[in-house]
Amino acid sequence: QVQPVESGGGSVQPGGSLRLSCAASGIIVSANSMGWYRQVPGKEREWVASINRHGTAAYTDSVKGRFTISRDNAKNTLYLQMNSLKFEDTAVYYCNKILTPITWGQGTPVTVSS
Length: 114
Description:
The protein is mostly beta strands. It is 0% helix and 45% strand. The protein is built from no helices and 10 strands. The protein has strands at residues 5-7, 10-12, 18-23, 34-39, 46-51, 57-59, 67-72, 77-82, 91-97, 108-112. It has a 6-stranded mixed sheet with strand order 2-10-9-4-5-6, with no helix packed on it. It is globular, with a radius of gyration of 13 Å. The protein starts with a strand and ends with a strand.
């Protein structure tokens, strides 16, 4: 089944950094508005960041100044650079199209703990 494949998650201490990757199988990253989302058990999936076809990025308020979304068109891959991580960033992170999402991938877990 065609779905994104997220990777790069892990366990870090507060203040640490991680870089997530999304191999966007089934999606042409450069031709779509792409987004990163996250979900905590028991809560709905929430939007974190997005980048449109023109390269314009947007972020939810809680990650502004700490996270950076980017893409590599040649590799058809989406990235999320996460710096200054906080406890509340702990979640499973997913990527997908902003409009008409395809089947969600497995996500990559991020745990921020001391």
